[in-house]
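Researcher: Good morning. I'm working through a list of sequences from a screen, and I'd like to move beyond sequence-only analysis. For each chain I'm collecting a predicted structure so we can compare shapes side by side. This is the next one on the list. No need for commentary yet; just the structure.
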Amino acid sequence: MVFGHNINKYYLKYWYLYLIGFLSLLVVDYYGSIVPPKIIGAIVNDLTNATMTDVLLKGYIGQLLLSLVLCVVMRFLWRFAFFGASCLITHKMRHELFAKSLKLSQTFYSNNKVGGLMAYYTNDIEEIGESIGWGFMEMCDIIILTPSILYNMFKLNWVVTLFALIPLVLIGIGAAFIMRFMSNRFKARQDEYEKLSDYTTESISGIRVVKAFVKEAQEEADFEKENQVNYEVNMSFIKLQMIFHTVLDLLIWLAYLAIVGVGSYFVINNVGGKLGINIGTLTQFVAYFDTLIWPMFAVGEVINMASRGKASLTRYNYIIDCEIDLIDGEKTINPDEFTGNITFNHLTFSYPDGNKPALNDVSFEIKEGEFIGIIGKTGSSKTTLVNLLLRLYNVGPQEILIDGEDIMSYKIHDLREMIGYVPQDNFLYSTTIEDNIAFKTGEVRPDVVTRTAKIAGVHRDISEFPNQYRTVLGERGVSVSGGQKQRISIARALYNDPKILILDDALSAVDTKTEADILSFLKNERKNKTTILIAHRISSIKSADKIAVFDDGGVLSGFDTHENLLKNNSIYRETYNLQQLEEERQNG
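Model: Good morning. Structure tokens for this chain:
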């Protein structure tokens, strides 16, 4: 059983299930642990004293059968209640974890790897679920059984009962001491599992690179190092766990031996007359102690589960309590009034962990319906510029204006609804092609899917697949070529006809003829809508209305037409000449 500000609300929400479970367990413990020893003790006394009759025997058996039926029914009920509550809570927690993950910024994902984060959704949630399910049940069992059994044992013989209290006192002292160590070791265990999960995910995701560079042996050796650390941390936790359980077993069985020995001595030496103990009473007493062994063991289990649940809850809280650093505006966007006019006004931006500006005093304007090209050296922050338009990071006041309004004043959701984006990595989901193209809305409209695929120049390729648009792609789109992946991504960005379209190096994997066809389609289909194309080839953007040229340090070197930049911008002219020479060399 674990408690904390992010889980207590669920106990309050599903309190009725825990109450049903507690009351059902109360019936089970009474009729399954308190009543049977009394009946067995009475049977032994009647048999010893030769007073047993058929009527008495039938009565005893009837009482035992009634207890059995009640226990079966109520045992099903408490399992349904406790485990049902556990499933409901973990279901809600997993959903809350995912919802929070979607809201966290790029800064968070820059510092936390995806493979490692998967451990939070699997191991940690499962450990919390076990703690609030089995752990809660066992804690209730301890609370109900221990005092009720001890009460009945004291009624039978207070001297022998004192021997049963010895392990309970020692267990309580040891439990408080050992729980802290178990919680720390389990957290270390989960942390190592996270690292191992991250390493495995990254290696398998990059399996083609591993094979291409013949690094299988090195990857296997590196994995074994991570696996060995994981093994050692797990063994450290298990050793402590086994020591605790072994000592617990020893204390319980020593107490068991003392109870049987002392009780038998009293019976043999006729001390029973003074202390009220005979064979039937001793049998009942031993039966009670047999029942008491379970809550004693349960103490160890509860400590174990609580320590694991607490460590996992701490990790869960790390994400749930993580601050959402993206500032969301309050201004809604009316799609009918939105034009896509963009102004960069002395924009200067540094990444949270950066020590110098990625963009430095950038100023230019993109008017409604313009086709804008962006070019520059690698690392000149071209992608950073469009990431800011997508509001993946915060910017200073009035540094980016859209339709005359500060970009920070808009609701992030509304702004992104107006933008179609094709990223450099062209991530595709392992579902059908039509589902990938219709990803923005989630509603597949075959006519729109086909139309956007034609604009993106990928319709003919898709038509040649056996299942055409219902072809299921491999993980991350691995079953299609790089050029097909880029064009499917373009079709996806065009699906809801965005007011602003951003293509981040989205034509690098296609041939020049296909590129020219796509650009021609885009210009014809997107009149009066803003399009931004980041490219490395000047041939891709020379027909753009304006071209932004970036230099090292995120400095805007020029913003003009292709012809004017050739005349007035040395960086652009040098890039153009180099690319012309390279093209002539390839053709020559």
